[in-house]
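PROTEIN DESIGN WORKSHEET
SECTION A - STRUCTURE
LENGTH: 386
C-ALPHA CELLS:
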C-alpha cells in the first residue's frame, strides 16, 4: 500500500510525544492535571439538550438533511448576527451551516486556492488554516505574530511578490492560541487590505462570545466592504459547550458562500436536522447559561493569572478566549518547559511552537478545567518556584 504524497506533506504532529509521555505517566498512576486541550468541561445548556431529544424523536429528522442547512437554522443565524453585531445577512445567500467550523475552515482552500497559490496564515495560529492550504496544493505563507505587535499581523510587511500570489488571508480574534483581541478599526483596515490586494479575508470567530472585563468582540462583517471581501466562521462549540455536536457556520460575501456550497454538496450531506434544531434553541433561547460560563472562565483566568503573576511570571490577563498564553522561563524552549512541567509537576500544557514557529518561547494554558484542579495546578507550579 502506498499513501499519497500530500499526506507526507502534512507537518508532523507535535503533540504526539507529549501524548505518549502523558499516557506513560498515567500508566504509572500519576495524577495528571491537563491544561492541554481547549474542550469545554461544562455540559451543553439543558434547553439545547431538550430540543435535541425532542427533535431526535421526530421521524422527519431521520432522513437526509438539506445540503444548505435548514432554512429555520439559517434564519436563526441571520437574526443572531443582527442582534449581536447589527449585521444584516440574507439567510439564503450569505449563510452556510457547517459540520463544525473546522470542516469549513479545512475546505475553504479547496474552493479558493489553486496549486501554487498562497494563503497568508497567522503564526502562531489554529493549525487547520495551514493543513487545509497544504492539502489543497497551495503554499502557506506564515505571518509572524509577536508580543511587540500585540499578536496582530503587520500586513504592510508582506512582500509584494507574495501578495501577488496570495488569494486568502486568515485571521482569528479572540485568538487561539495567543488570546489576543482586536477592535473594529483593525477589521476595517484588514478588509481594505483584502480589497486592495484582491484577497478573500477569512475570519475565524470561534471565541467572540467568550470575552471579559467589558470587552465586546467585533465581527469582521461589521467592517465596510466586508460583504464583498470577507467571510466569517462561527461555531456553537465553545459558546454553548457543544464541541461534540459538530455544528457551526460560515457567513459573508455571497460569491464565497456560493463556492463553499458548491463544494460541500460534493462532500457531505448536511447536518442532522435534530442538531440544527438544537442549534436554533441555542441561538434563540435564553443566554444566561452562556453568561454563567463566561463568568466561570473569567474566574479561572484570574486564578491562573494572579497565581502566575505572584510567581513573577510576565502574563497579561486576556480579554477573550479560553486560553492564557504564557512566556516560558529563560533558558527553556516551549518543548523543554512543557516536558519539565510534565516530568516535575504532572502538569500538561500545549507547547507554543505547536501552533507555528513564532509560538516558540510560549506555552498555552486552556481554562477548560474544573476550578479545584486549576487551583491545585497553580499550587504545583508554585512548588516548582520554591
Ligand atoms: C480557532 C479555532 N477555530 C475553529 C475551531 C474548530 O471548532 P469547531 O470545529 O468545533 O467548530 C477551533 C477549535 O478548537 C479553534 O480553536
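SECTION B - SEQUENCE
RESIDUE ASSIGNMENT:
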Amino acid at each position: 500500500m502506498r499513501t499519497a504524497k500530500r499526506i507526507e506533506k502534512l507537518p508532523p504532529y507535535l503533540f504526539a510525544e507529549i501524548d505518549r509521555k502523558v499516557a506513560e505517566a498515567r500508566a504509572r498512576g500519576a495524577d495528571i492535571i491537563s491544561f492541554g486541550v481547549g474542550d469545554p468541561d461544562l455540559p451543553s445548556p439543558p434547553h439545547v439538550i431538550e430540543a435535541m431529544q425532542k427533535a431526535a424523536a421526530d421521524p422527519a429528522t431521520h432522513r437526509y438533511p438539506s445540503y444548505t442547512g435548514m432554512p429555520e437554522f439559517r434564519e436563526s443565524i441571520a437574526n443572531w448576527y443582527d442582534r449581536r453585531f447589527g449585521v444584516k445577512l440574507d439567510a439564503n445567500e450569505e449563510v452556510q451551516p457547517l459540520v463544525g467550523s473546522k470542516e469549513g475552515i479545512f475546505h475553504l482552500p479547496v474552493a479558493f486556492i489553486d496549486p501554487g497559490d498562497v494563503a497568508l496564515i497567522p503564526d502562531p495560529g489554529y493549525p487547520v488554516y495551514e493543513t487545509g492550504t497544504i492539502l489543497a496544493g497551495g503554499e502557506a505563507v506564515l505571518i509572524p505574530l509577536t508580543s511587540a505587535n500585540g499578536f496582530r499581523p503587520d500586513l504592510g510587511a508582506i512582500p509584494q511578490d507574495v501578495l501577488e500570489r496570495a488569494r486568502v488571508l486568515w485571521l482569528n480574534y479572540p485568538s487561539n492560541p495567543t488570546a489576543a483581541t482586536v477592535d473594529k478599526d483593525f477589521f476595517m483596515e484588514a478588509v481594505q487590505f483584502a480589497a486592495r490586494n484582491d484577497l478573500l479575508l477569512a475570519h475565524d470567530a470561534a471565541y467572540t462570545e467568550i470575552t471579559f472585563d467589558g470587552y465586546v468582540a467585533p465581527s469582521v462583517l461589521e467592517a465596510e466592504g466586508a460583504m464583498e471581501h470577507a467571510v466569517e466562521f462561527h461555531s456553537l462549540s465553545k459558546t454553548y459547550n457543544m464541541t461534540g455536536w459538530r455544528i457551526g457556520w460560515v457567513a459573508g460575501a455571497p460569491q464565497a458562500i456560493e463556492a463553499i456550497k458548491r463544494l460541500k454538496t460534493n462532500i457531505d450531506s448536511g447536518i442532522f436536522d435534530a442538531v440544527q434544531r438544537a442549534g436554533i434553541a441555542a441561538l434563540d433561547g435564553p443566554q444566561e447559561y452562556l453568561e454563567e460560563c463566561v463568568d466561570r472562565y473569567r474566574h479561572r483566568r484570574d486564578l491562573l493569572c494572579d497565581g502566575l503573576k505572584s510567581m513573577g511570571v510576565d502574563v497579561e490577563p486576556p480579554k477573550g478566549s479560553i486560553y492564557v498564553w504564557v512566556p516560558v522561563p529563560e533558558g527553556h524552549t516551549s518543548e523543554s518547559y512543557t516536558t519539565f512541567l510534565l516530568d516535575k509537576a504532572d502538569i500538561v500544557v500545549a507547547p507554543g511552537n505547536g501552533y507555528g514557529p513564532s509560538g516558540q518561547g510560549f506555552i498555552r494554558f486552556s481554562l477548560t478545567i474544573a476550578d479545584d484542579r486549576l487551583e491545585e495546578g497553580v499550587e504545583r507550579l508554585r512548588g516548582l518556584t520554591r
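SECTION C - NOTES
The radius of gyration is 21 Å.
The chain has a mean pLDDT of 95.
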